[in-house]
Design brief:
This protein is mostly beta strands. Helix content is about 5%, strand content about 50%. The strands form two sheets. It has a seven-stranded antiparallel β-sheet, with helices on one face. It has a two-stranded antiparallel sheet with strand order 4-5. A hairpin with a 2-residue loop joins strand 1 and strand 2. The protein is elongated and about 65 Å long.
Length: about 140
């Protein structure tokens, strides 16, 4: 397989919010879209139910990583919500282990929903992991 077609087996996800880089994450869940369908039954037609598309729905995106110094950037972004906020554009870029971009998604009007800090327990030593969850209103068409 040519090096340019290298699949993203080991990736990290670099997140920027309006040119503020929040750092790299090693897990990204929820990138997607769903068409919401409305079902209509037609009188006299017992063999068919109409499936009518109504709108697009976007799930929240969850990003996780081990705790790093970049956690401060996430904390500042969340803290900025207390003084009012404006919706921002986010970019999530999947990169290979050596830093080459694989794919990029732009998210419109992101809002931070939740930050979950690490579980700290001396009896069960584990890597301290943080997770952020963001809502958005669709994808940016770049080109």
């Amino acid at each position: 397989m040519p090096a340019t077609d290298d699949p993203a087996v080991s990736v990290c996800f670099v997140v920027t919010i309006d040119d503020i880089e929040l750092g790299s994450f090693n897990s990204c869940q929820g990138l997607g879209a769903e068409v919401v369908l409305e079902q209509r039954e037609e009188g006299g037609n017992n063999h068919h139910i109409w499936q009518l598309p109504t709108r697009l729905k976007y799930p929240n995106v969850k990003l996780s990583r081990p705790l790093t110094r970049d956690t401060e950037k996430v904390a500042r972004w969340f803290a900025s919500m207390t003084t009012g906020f404006s919706r921002k554009t986010a970019h999530i870029e999947a990169r290979t282990g050596d830093g080459r971009p694989v794919a990029r998604w732009g998210l419109l009007e992101v809002v931070p929903v939740r930050w979950t800090g690490p579980v700290l327990n001396a009896e069960q030593p584990k890597v301290a992991v943080e997770t952020i969850e963001i809502a958005h209103h669709g994808f940016v068409m770049e080109g």
